[in-house]
Amino acid sequence: MKRREPTKRTADKAEKEKEKEVFAEISLDQNGTDSADEDDIVDADGNLIFGPFETVDGEEGEEELPEIIPDYASDDSDEETNNTIGNVPLEWYAELDHIGYDINGKKIPKPKGASKDALDEFLDSMDDPNAWRSVLNKLEGENVVLSDTDLDIIKRIQSKMIPEKDYNPYEPTVEWFSSQTETQPLSAAPEPKRRFIPSKTEGARIMKIVRAIRKGWKKTTEELKEEKEKALPKFYDIWAHSDPDAKDKHMHIPAPRMSLPDHRESYNPPIEYIPTEEEVEEWKALDPEDRPQNFIPKKHPNLRSVGAYERFVQERFDRCLDLYLCPRMIKNRINIDPESLIPQLPSRKELEPYPTALSVVYEGHEKRIRCFSVDPTGKWLVSGSDDCTVRVWEVLTGRMVKSWKFEEPVQDVKWNPNSEFSILAIAVENDVFLVNPGVSSKEVDEVTDEVFANIWGKESPSKIDWKKPSAAASALGHRVILNFSKNVTTVVWHRKGDYFSTVCPDAGGAAVSIHQISKRQTQNPFKKSYGLVQKVQFHPKKPWLFVATQRYIRVYNLIQQDLIHKLHPGVKWISSMDVHPQGDNVLIGSYDKRLCWFDMDLSSKPYKTLRYHKSAIRNSTFHRTLPLFASCSDDGTLNVFHGMVYDSLDQNPLIVPLKSFKAHEVVDSLGVLHCEFHPIQPWVFSCGSDNGAFVLKLFA
Amino acid sequence: MGKIKKKGESGAATNYISRNMAIKKLQISLAQFRRLCIIKGIYPREPRNKKKVNKGSTAPKTFYYKKDIQFLLHEPVLHKLREIRSHQRKINRAIGKKEWAVAKLLESQRPEYRLDHIIKERYPSFNLAVRDLDDALSMLALFATLPMHSGVIKPSTIKNCARLVTEFQHYVMIAGRLKKVFVSIKGIYYQADIGGSDVTWIVPHPFSQDTPRDVDFRIMATFLDLYETLVGFTNYKLYTDLNLVYPPKMKNETLDSGLAGFVVETVEGKGFLDGIKESETSDATSAPNRKARKEVEKRVKNLASTIGKFSDANAEQEEMDEDADEEDEDKDIPSAIVEPTDASEMVPSLKDAAKISTTRTASNSHKLFHSCVFFLSREVPRNSLEFVIKSFGGKVGWPETSGAGAAVAESDPTITHQIVDRSMAPGETRHDTRDYVQPQWIYDCINAGKLVKTKGYHIGENLPAHLSPFGGGKEGYVPSEAALSAIAASKGVTEESDEEDAEKDAVEANVMEADAEEEEEEDDVEDDDEEEDENKGPLDSDDEEQVYQAELEAEAAGLSFTEYMQKKDAEEKGLSKKKSTDTAGKKRKISAAEAEAAEEKELAKMLMNKKERRLYGQIEFGRKKKEEEAKKLLDRRVAHQKTEAKKAKETKNAEVATPAKAPAAAAKSPAAVKSPAAAKSPAVTKTPAVAKSPAAATPKAAKSVKSTPSKSAAVTPGSSKKARKA
Fold first, then answer.
1. A317 close to A660: Cβ distance less than 8 angstroms
2. For chain A, which has fewer Cβ within 10 Å, the N-terminal or C-terminal residue?
């Protein structure tokens, strides 16, 4: 039991005596009723339960405080009341005239005024001077007036102070148990004898164990271990009963072995394996993972001078990591002969004739040659250039025969494919000139002139003006001048030589126009355009027109005025187009280096897309009679292919590359601008620059 | 219509499990999972389609086979690991309470797991276990060299590692399984043939290993745990298959004595190894078997002698072999030691070498050092050399300071070779009866499969390069030394006296090969022009190409040009040279057709589709890279040889200047014949070539104008090359 320390506050003894008497008199059951001013709560034995209460009033101070009994009394939860109803809701008794039962089972009557209404309560509170400090004790059904001590405690608790006013938290400690060890025994009795002689009982117990061990009933730890080992030795023939041909677990991937060392790793490698200083630096600069080998080869003069390899542990550790951390996967190594990847093609010798070498160079143009065309007889070559001239060359000799000067660079020039006429269509800026070059035989010239003479008498329904050239121009051979609103880029003849078509890409719906010489009329077959028209081409046999926009090729039937096909080459920008003489195959060149071969019977997608040029393809063309086709590109090459089309539908066209000419130099990233075959011979023409000059070349 | 399949509920998605999921499923820590994976040999897999497995994501994630993890659930080691963990907690608690006695008791009762069932499970047959021996042995060999008291690894473990490796080496030695040895800068590689499959392991050089900080020794220790068990069981199997007792006894408890410290006994209790006798048991037969076999052989021999004498060399050799065996049994003295010849030129028992190289089989290849007795001086790697020499049937001794158990003492007169790595101290006595060679000789002999000449291996001499018996690098380059040994092997050892010539030939052949390659490149680009050259004979000395080539060869061989030509004429029948010239002639003839074919190939490539073209490009890229590497090495070699030849020439010139020595030098080698006049001659022969080259170039240039532009462009580099040459 803890004693309360005597407080420093010690009042005179007389007062204390008086207080004691007072305490003795007070009983708990009177506490609530008769002494509202009594502030100390005392239990049945008369002991003070709440210490602080005694300190509230100065005059109640005392020297010896009553001791606290740490029993139920110190717990205020079972503070005794008369009412024995326990912890039940009080409204159960609201309608009754008693508030509960006392310890003898008798009803405790409800006090007067217990069922007061609010007004009465208010009035009472106004009357009662202690109303502000009274609290309703619901269990007893009466008001309890808080004493000054209570109020003081409440105040102290509110201000977070220790409730007891006189409690000193900083009292000096009292050592109940001394921290000092005593040197002298407390008792002077001598040590008993039993502390100096072995215990007999213990001896007996030990002997029991010894006997057990001797007799083998009990085993020592060593023996146990030995026995265990004997039962299952550390190593034994584990594969005694195994199948010698047993396989790995299903799906097991054995770890790849470490690669065996090569000469490089030798302590004394051949001299060529020793890296130079630069190579060592290079090796050091590499990331450790990228290094071809993880050491620097070094030559040691003798075995004695070889030191420890400092990364040995690290390498073993890395191997360990690889073994348990690396995801494993079976990869099939491609063991393929690279030559087998190259397609097997028939020998070039079987596919002769084809152009093999440069034979004629046509020199004379001063600026870049944009276009040229070969006369249907194959004797003459006409070329148009940026130097505003159109020149006619003799094919075999390379001699320039004729020349016309224009005001603007020549965009396109085409020879009429009908050998009965001799007409040149020349596109210059916004105009198209029809010219009789006058290099053919006399009869042909006469027939041609007659045709042109006849057209002027007829009524022309066309929108475009067909102008008759001046006399001076007529003398030069000019026969008709067609004037367009926009730039003319392409002129294409129909095979019969009466119709020709022109393309003005910027003219929108009127981009493509078809002209008929005999009737002196011009038609615009399309109301609107589907994009920038790049090229047009007549079908060699049917009344069809191929129109190439940037991405697609549309094939129209001009008689039925209907779209027949739409070809999807899958290229970004079509640069050129040619139709096979039999009409079923189309060749497309594109600025994105691709050459597409369409078999129109097969699909609207290309039968073959080849990408062998290093830059944009400028032109691709078929030979009129032989199974040849060619393409030229800005990389300066001219490639000739064998392109055989079979009559049977079940055989695909055969494409064999025959020759690649390094035809022209690349100047300002422009190489070979145009290529065309000779109409009869296996010859191909190209135009471009060579040694600074702008020339045409014939490869035969 | 069938039920719509839900994603991730069948197929690949259910076959794999991610690492985190696996850990959660097993309810263990990552460290314990790692330990289990290492022991059980469970490794992550790379799913064929990562997206299907990883819920459509391609984020890097580790996947295991679900089955593997499910098997782990029933793993006894897993339960043991749990037990160990709870037991450790008990110990920790006891220590926390300072109940030392309890802690000690608990410590002694710590549960242990055994790995034998895992060994059995992972390697269902012995052959599969042999497959994984590479890593195991290398690891054990490394740990055997770690410092005893570094605190990283328990000393007992280190001892055990050393013991297991030595036991294995002992087996290899007894059974004669060693095939190849390679001294690298990392350590010494050994390759042995165990049950038909090769086991290669590396033993670090005998220095204390540096233990880096970023190495997790816990992981290594787990591996070590497994490998110790594996090698232990393998050793047991190997020993018992030879009818030997496992584990072999040790003479003394320290492992310093290495191989010599073991006493191997047969099951019958007979000592298996007693000094040199171990070499007699050539194959895996027990002692009684051996005796029986010998008797049978003797009878067969008698029979043969009654029928008639064999002229066959092989039979003779066998007989000699047999005699040697008998002699050994009687006296323990190898046969070849009886008559040691001149120390510098002595090649011990060339008969043996010939025999070995011609009839090299598994059974008798390890009798290579059968007739040699070695003594290892200080500063040579004793353990390695002892292992290697004994594996090939040699007898070996070493000084007391290097350890106990030497079979011979230094003063023993039977010693044929003394292995030294430092020139002799002035006080030391040099025995005339011995050859003093550097350790590399032993290793080179083993890899060559015969006793190579000791010339070049003596102390103070520049050692020949030590080549890897496992082949060269991936670039496919064969150094001339390797080519030389290949030639020697093909020729056999019958032409021992011409060995040096063969060497020279090989070097020449190598250099010429390089030239031929260059030639080839040029030929590729030239096409029509070659037709002109065809008319001339292939050996026409006017041809500037050939002159150049010949000059190059001469230069590389260290001869003057005229000399070289004379020599060439004289030795026209020289095998390699003739071949190369023949091929050169042929090449010239077919070059036009070849050019045509090459062009056709180039054109055909146009028709390849993108996929094929890329693949082709990759293959070609790899091939070219390899070729470049090889060419670089060859060029470096040729350059080196040229400088060497120049140096030699200079020194010889100096010798010629002192007339007294000149004849001696001339007698040594034809290359030494060198006079100032001869030195000038190449310049004289060169002049016509120089005069000719522009003339030769001009018609070509003229022609190129006519020919196709592609050709003309292609010719230009070739002609410029020629100009450079001229």
1. no
2. N
Quick one: fold of A353-699?
Methylamine Dehydrogenase; Chain H (2.130.10)
Contacts of B197 in chain A (CB under 8 A): none
**Rounded Cα–Cα distance for residues A534 and A512 (Å):** 10
Instruction: Please give the residue range of the domain that contains residue B77.
Output: 12-109
Q: In whole angstroms, how far apart are CA A512 and each of A418, A618, B171?
A: 22, 21, 93
**Contact: A313, B210; criterion CB under 8 Å:** yes
Q: Considering only alpha carbons, which residue of chain A is nearest residue B622?
A: A338
* Residues of chain A positioned with their CB less than 8 A from the CB of B48: 329
Q: A623 to chain B, minimum CA–CA distance in Å? A: 20
User: Residue B438 and residue A303: Cβ atoms within 8 Å?
Assistant: yes
Q: Which of B413, B442, B469 is the last residue of a domain?
A: B469
Decide if A326 and B128 are in contact by the 8 Å CB cutoff.
no
pTM: 0.64
Beta-carbon separation of B205 and A309 below 8 A = yes
Same domain, B143 and B227: yes
- Tell me, yes or no, whether B66 and B125 share the same domain: no
Q: Are residues B104 and B18 in the same domain?
A: yes
Dump the DSSP string for A622-677.
E-SSSSEEEEEETTSEEEEEEEE--SSTTSPPEEEEEEEEE-SB-BTTB---EEEE
* Contacts (Cβ under 8 Å, ≥6 apart) of B668: none
Structure confidence by residue, pLDDT tens digits, A537-566: 999 999 999 999 999 999 999 999 999 999
Point out the residue among B183, B462, B612 whose CB comes nearest to the CB of A267.
Answer: B183
Of B131, B463, B479, the CB nearest to A272: B479
Q: How far is A223 from chain B (nearest CA, A)?
A: 14
CATH, residue B406: 3.40.50.10190
Are residues A580 and A624 in contact, defined by beta-carbon separation less than 8 angstroms? no
Most trustworthy range by pLDDT among A60-64, A365-369, A449-453, B672-676: A365-369
Residues from chain A contacting residue B625 (CB–CB below 8 Å) = none
What does the alpha-carbon distance between residue B679 and residue B650 come to, in Å, rounded to a whole number?
12
Reply yes or no on whether the pLDDT at B688 is more than 90: no
Lowest mean pLDDT among A530-539, B162-171, B395-404, B671-680: B671-680
Q: Do A661 and B710 touch (CB under 8 A)?
A: yes
**Is the Cα torsion angle B530, B536, B542, B547 positive or negative in sign?**
positive
Q: Do B620 and A243 touch (CB under 8 A)?
A: no
**Residue B273 to residue B276: CA distance in whole angstroms:** 8
Q: Which of B469, B500, B534 is the last residue of a domain?
A: B469
User: Which B-chain residues 273-332 have CB contacts (< 8 A) with chain A?
Assistant: none
Q: Do the chains contact at B212 and A314, CB–CB below 8 Å?
A: yes
Question: Are residues B128 and B273 part of one domain?
Answer: yes
- Taking an 8 Å cut-off on Cβ atoms, the answer to whether A269 and B466 are in contact is yes
CB B273 within 8 A of CB B279: no
Confidence of residue B229 (pLDDT cuts 50, 70, 90): very high
Tell me the pLDDT tens digit for each residue of B276-292: 344 333 333 344 455 55
Asked whether the beta carbons of B58 and B51 are under 8 A apart, the reply is: yes
Check if A319 contacts B (Cβ < 8 Å): yes
Q: Is A340 on the interface with B (CB under 8 A)?
A: no
Q: Is residue A32 scored above 50 in pLDDT?
A: no
Domain annotation covers residue B551: no
Do B127 and B243 sit in the same domain of this protein?
Answer: yes
Q: Quick check: A610 and B612 in contact, CB under 8 A?
A: no
CB A696 within 8 A of CB A687: yes
Instruction: Test B468 with A263 for CB contact under 8 angstroms.
Output: yes
Query: Is B188 or A18 the better-scoring residue by pLDDT?
Result: B188
Is residue B647 assigned to a domain? no
Classify residue B697: in a domain, yes or no. no
Band the pLDDT of A16: cuts 50, 70, 90: very low
Whether B151 and B264 map to the same domain: the answer is yes
Q: Which residue has the higher pLDDT, B192 or A520?
A: B192
Q: For chain A, what are the domain ranges?
A: 353-699
Q: Is residue B148 part of a domain?
A: yes
Mark whether B460 and B388 lie in a shared domain: yes
What is the number of structural domains in chain B? 4
